[in-house]
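HOLO CASE FILE
Compound: magnesium ion
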Amino acid sequence: MVKSSSFHKEIEPVKKNKHPLTALSQKGPLLFLLDYDGTLTDFKKNPEHSQISASTRALLHRLQQKHKAIIVTGRYVDSLFKISGLKKFPVIGSHGFEARNLPKGLRFASLAQEKLYRKEAAILWKAVRHLHHRFPGIYIEKKPFSSTIHFRGIVFSKKQTTQLHQEFNAIYRRTITPRFWNLEQGKKMIEVLPKGFSKGKSVKALLKRFPHHQVIYAGDDVADISVFKVLGKKGLKIAIGNRVPRKYYDLKFKNPREFLTWLKVFETSQKKWLPCISNY
Ligand SMILES: [Mg+2]
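Model generated. Tokens follow.
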């Protein structure tokens, strides 16, 4: 059973047959929208190591079959599939730019936009590669539609961190078209993302396909705030860790493990009576 300390003080602890999701499921079908890194798995120094366990994978597949579940991640979709093992799962990837296996072929970027961003992301990746000589330990992720430098677990002085940001910024301005992009700083990372796309914007479009569903969104980082804002007073907004300000969430868990335990308590309680709903 999940400890009551896992929840914000205003939220009642889980009691037998009184899980908050059970109450929500009585209002309508559930739609789980779940961030991946920091929500379903702990942060690792190298994002390629952020795998999930077989039991978490099984839990997500059961949620997807009985209700609806979609991963909403900053990762590009193929990387998410590879690291999670969630092949064929519905995913909103690259911070709202990519759509895969969503209902009725829903997509967010046009083919022309995909072509443009793929080209510029490749140019930027080539140009920033040498930074790992100047800043040993950083990880420069090769992505199709964006560019990310990770420095999780690396101890840089404030001066070094500032210098890394400045050098990345200079390369970015010199090599690609800044007006097409947003430069953002996440948790121990620098990211360049296609402008005009966000998790929140894509979730807003997605929710039109699920007008009667009760939405549960779980995320851990500032990039998830755009979704919390879109949901407003609707749905159940869940924060993992301490990066999401209190005003945006209804429930909070200390870490992915506590959140997954809570999800599992609900899913197990549903086993006996919920029918299996077919996919889209
Ligand atoms: Mg995250």
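CASE NOTES: DSSP finds nine helices and eleven strands in the chain. The CA atoms of residues 141 and 218 lie 24 Å apart.
CLOSED: yes
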